[in-house]
TrEMBL record:
Domain of life assignment: Bacteria
Source species: Leptospira biflexa serovar Patoc (strain Patoc 1 / ATCC 23582 / Paris)
Keyword entries, A-Z: Hydrolase
Record CDD domains: HDAC_classIV (cd09993)
Name recorded for this polypeptide: Putative arginase/deacetylase
GO molecular function, one term: hydrolase activity
InterPro entries cross-referenced by the UniProt entry: HDAC_classIV, HDACs, His_deacetylse_dom, His_deacetylse_dom_sf, Ureohydrolase_dom_sf
Gene3D superfamilies per UniProt: Histone deacetylase domain
Protein family according to the UniProt entry: Belongs to the histone deacetylase family.
PANTHER family hit by this protein: HISTONE DEACETYLASE 12 (PTHR10625:SF19), HISTONE DEACETYLASE HDAC1-RELATED (PTHR10625)
Length: 299
């Protein structure tokens, strides 16, 4: 297991300017700056990912879809994205996937490896969806399985929206367990995870954390995981513009700490990705993501 507890990964290409778009894709540089202002984390080395290799993309995505994506063409395969399609956006996704692949590789040396990007959990093998062009977690899991066929990967997805892409991709893989806890009456069209928890609007901290604890205890009994991929969406937040869950900033950090303690109790590594966050006050989204870093970085 790991000598150093937490590795942080970031690339400036994560950052995008999408004026007027609900997806605050400039949050990544703000989070990086927040880390660099913090007295604890300012001196830490932040690791630089490379762009994901084409061969790794093909572990999950079809050649036909990738051809359309890299031609920047609006086709039936790319049209379900809610983002523009151009070179800088595709490059951003390639670095974001590279960050999650790097985090997966670092799980041999670090108990927690944190990609300050990624979590593109709506992307399917043959199409884009939502704000997701490439599925970083699925690619990282499949790549890890090439060298470690005995990996039993647990995907814990606590974004506001169901991780439908991962649920679909791994639906027949008994060595990957998908768990998604999300607002039930929202986008997207649901796929079937190994464990889905559909939350009602106005769910608050105590109920949320109790359900999460119960779910993790059930997973402990049902699946012998040896690595966790945690999709740590900021959007269950009580002032998120796209959701109706009522989880406080404090409750979200307690959520993150619960996932950390779960990984520690199993003595297995955890790869963390950011995923969504659309707080009405943009600074809240950045702070929630920073709190996730501190939840995994604190001694």
């Amino acid at each position: 297991m790991a000598s150093n507890a937490l590795a942080l990964i970031y690339h400036s290409s994560y950052n995008l300017e999408l004026p007027g778009h609900v997806f605050p894709a400039h949050k990544y540089s703000h989070l990086y700056n927040r880390v660099k202002r913090d007295p604890v984390y300012a001196s830490w080395d932040i690791l630089l990912p490379k762009k994901v290799d084409d061969a790794d993309l093909e572990l999950v995505h079809t050649k036909e879809y990738l051809d359309d994506l890299f031609s920047y063409e609006h086709t039936p395969r790319t049209m379900y994205s809610e983002l523009p399609l151009n070179r800088s956006i595709v490059e951003s996704f390639m670095y974001g996937v590279g960050g999650t692949v790097l985090a997966s590789e670092l799980s041999d040396k670090h108990q927690f490896a944190f990609n300050m990007g990624g979590g593109y959990h709506h992307s399917f093998p043959d199409r884009a969806e939502g704000f997701c062009y490439l599925n970083d977690v699925a690619i990282a899991v499949k790549k890890q399985k090439e060298t470690k066929p005995d990996i039993n990967a647990l995907i814990i997805d606590l974004d506001l929206h169901q991780g439908n892409g991962n649920s679909y991709i791994f639906q027949y893989d008994d060595k990957v367990f998908t768990f998604s806890m999300h607002q039930g009456n929202l986008y997207p069209k649901k796929e079937i995870s190994n464990l889905d928890v559909n939350l009602e609007p106005n769910t608050k901290d105590d109920e949320y954390l109790s359900i999460l604890e119960t779910s993790l205890n059930q997973i402990r009994k049902d699946f012998d995981s040896n690595i966790i991929y945690y999709v740590a969406g900021a959007d269950p937040y009580e002032d998120d513009s796209l959701g109706e869950l009522k989880i406080s900033m404090k409750g979200l950090k307690e959520r993150d700490l619960m996932v950390r303690k779960f990984a520690e109790s199993l003595n297995i590594p955890c790869v963390v990705t950011l995923a969504g966050g659309y707080a009405r006050d943009f600074r809240d989204t950045v702070e929630i993501h920073f709190n996730t870093i501190t939840a995994f970085g604190e001694k």
